[in-house]
TrEMBL record:
InterPro entries assigned: FAD-oxidoreductase/Apoptosis, FAD/NAD-bd_sf, FAD/NAD-binding_dom, FAD/NAD-linked_Rdtase_dimer_sf, Reductase_C
Gene Ontology molecular function terms on file: oxidoreductase activity, acting on NAD(P)H
Record domain Reductase C-terminal: where: 317-378
Sorted UniProt keywords: FAD, Flavoprotein, Oxidoreductase
Keyword DNA-binding listed: no
Name of the molecule in the record: Reductase C-terminal
Keyword field contains Oxidoreductase: yes
Gene Ontology cellular-component annotations: cytoplasm
Cofactor(s) required, per the database record: FAD
Organism of origin: Nonomuraea wenchangensis
PANTHER family in the record: APOPTOSIS-INDUCING FACTOR 1 (PTHR43557), RIESKE DOMAIN-CONTAINING PROTEIN-RELATED (PTHR43557:SF2)
Sequence ranges assigned to domain FAD/NAD(P)-binding in this UniProt record: 1-298
Length: 388
C-alpha cells in the first residue's frame, strides 16, 4: 500500500511514524508546503519568540530519525487540488502524487485583518518564519499591540513583556481566554497580565490599522481610540487550511468533515487541526486545535489506514504557558459551567478546579497543578449532557 500524507508537521509526521510502528512497509510520501524540517509549533510563541531557543531546537526529529522512516519528503511544494476518486494530489508546480490512501494534515491558516497586508510591522504567527521575523521586529521596537485575547494572543503578550516591550492587548472578548475558560479562570489570567504591566483594551472591536510611510503606527478601536504601535500582531484566530480542497467533493464545514474513524472518503483521512470528526461518545462533531490531539489522533488514523476499525474518542486537552502560569485543561470547559476549586488556592497561584454542567463534570483545569489535573481527569464525563 502506498500512503501519501499532505502536511508534515506534528499530525502528519506522527501519522507517518505510527504507520511504520504498526508494520507498514509500503511507499510513504510526505508532501509539505514548508521548506523546513518538521518542527513543533507551541514553542514558536514562547521559547523561539523569546530567543531562548534557536530554531533547530524546535525540530520534531533529527535528520537521522527522519531518514529511518524510509519516507520521501517533498518539501516546499504546496498542494492545490485533490482527486478523491483517484487519490491523487496536484501541487502548485504541477506535480501529481498518487497513493492508495491519502491523509490530510494541512493544519490551519491564520485569519487577518482587512488591509493588514499593505503595512510593514504587522504580523501573524503560525510558522517558524513568522516567529523569526516577528522576533526581529520585537527586538527593534518598543511598543507592541496584540489583537486577539485568545491563547496565542495571551502567549505573545506574555513573551513580549518578558522582552521588555510596552504591550497592549486588545480584543473583542471581556477577558483573556474568556470564551474558552469562563469568567473565573479567565478573570485570574486577565489580572495576571495586568499585574505584569500589559495594557488591556478588552471588550472593544478593532476597526482597523493606521500607518505612515507604509509602516504601521497604530491600531484603531471602535471607540475612536488609537493604540500606538511599532509592531502589531494579529491573533484573531485561524481557519482550517481547506481552500485547496474546494471542488474535491469532500464535505468542508469547520474543517474536513470525517466520520468517527477520521475518514473523509474511501481511502481519504484527515488528522490534526484540519480534521472535523464525529465523536461517538459525545454524539457530535469536534475539531481540536492542539499538539496533544495531533499526536493522539495520528495513532487512530494510522491504524485505520491499515485496516483497523477504531473510533477516535479522546478526552480533549489543551495547555498554555503565560509568564509563570501553566494551565492544563482536560475535557470541554465552557463559560456556562459552574467552576469549583477542589485543591490548592487561587490566591497562592496553584489550584485545580472542576467544571460542571447539569450536575456532570465536563472538564478539569490545573493552574500550576498539572499532576492534580491529570488525576482529576478521570472524573470528566465524555458523553452528551443529560437535560434537567
Amino acid at each position: 500500500m502506498d500512503v501519501l500524507i499532505v502536511g508534515a508537521s506534528a499530525a502528519g509526521l506522527s501519522t507517518a511514524e505510527a504507520l511504520r510502528r504498526l508494520g507498514h512497509d509500503g511507499r510513504l510520501t510526505l508532501l509539505d508546503a514548508e521548506p523546513h524540517l518538521p518542527y513543533d509549533r507551541p514553542p514558536l510563541s514562547k521559547q523561539v519568540l523569546a530567543g531562548a531557543w534557536e530554531p533547530e531546537r524546535a525540530r520534531l526529529r533529527g535528520q537521522a530519525q527522519l531518514d529511518a522512516l524510509e519516507a520521501e519528503f517533498v518539501r516546499g511544494e504546496r498542494a492545490v487540488s485533490l482527486d478523491v476518486a483517484g487519490r491523487a494530489v496536484t501541487t502548485a508546480s504541477g506535480r501529481v502524487l498518487r497513493a492508495d490512501a491519502v491523509v490530510l494534515a494541512t493544519g490551519l491558516t491564520p485569519c487577518r485583518l482587512p488591509g493588514q497586508g499593505g503595512l510593514a510591522g504587522v504580523h501573524v504567527l503560525r510558522g517558524l518564519d513568522h516567529a523569526l521575523t516577528l522576533r526581529a521586529h520585537l527586538t527593534a521596537g518598543t511598543r507592541l499591540v496584540v489583537v486577539g485575547e485568545g491563547v496565542l494572543g495571551g502567549e505573545i503578550a506574555a513573551t513580549a513583556r518578558g522582552l521588555g516591550l510596552e504591550v497592549t492587548l486588545a480584543g473583542l472578548g471581556p477577558a483573556v481566554l474568556g470564551d474558552q475558560l469562563g469568567p473565573f479562570v479567565s478573570g485570574l489570567l486577565t489580572r495576571t497580565h495586568a499585574g505584569r504591566g500589559v495594557r488591556l483594551r478588552l471588550g472593544v472591536a478593532v476597526e482597523g490599522l493606521e500607518g505612515e510611510g507604509g509602516r504601521v503606527t497604530g491600531v484603531r478601536l471602535a471607540t475612536g481610540e488609537t493604540l500606538p504601535a511599532d509592531v502589531v500582531v494579529v491573533a484573531v484566530g485561524s481557519r482550517p487550511a481547506t481552500g485547496w480542497l474546494d471542488g474535491s467533493g469532500l464535505a468542508l464545514g469547520d474543517g474536513v468533515e470525517c466520520d468517527s474513524r477520521c475518514r473523509a472518503a474511501e481511502g481519504v483521512y484527515a488528522v490534526g487541526d484540519v480534521a472535523s470528526f464525529h465523536h461517538e461518545e459525545l454524539g457530535r462533531r469536534l475539531r481540536l486545535e492542539n499538539r496533544t490531539n495531533a499526536t493522539e489522533q495520528a495513532q487512530t488514523v494510522a491504524a485505520n489506514v491499515l485496516g483497523a476499525d477504531r473510533p477516535y474518542t479522546p478526552i480533549p486537552y489543551f495547555w498554555t504557558d503565560q509568564y509563570d502560569v501553566k494551565i492544563q485543561a482536560h475535557g470541554l470547559p465552557s463559560p456556562a459551567a459552574e467552576v469549583t476549586v477542589t485543591e490548592g488556592d487561587p490566591e497562592q497561584h496553584r489550584f485545580a478546579a472542576l467544571y460542571r454542567e447539569g450536575g456532570q463534570v465536563t472538564a478539569v483545569l490545573g493552574w500550576n497543578m498539572p499532576k492534580q489535573a491529570r488525576l482529576l481527569r478521570q472524573q470528566v464525563l465524555v458523553q452528551p449532557l443529560t437535560t434537567a
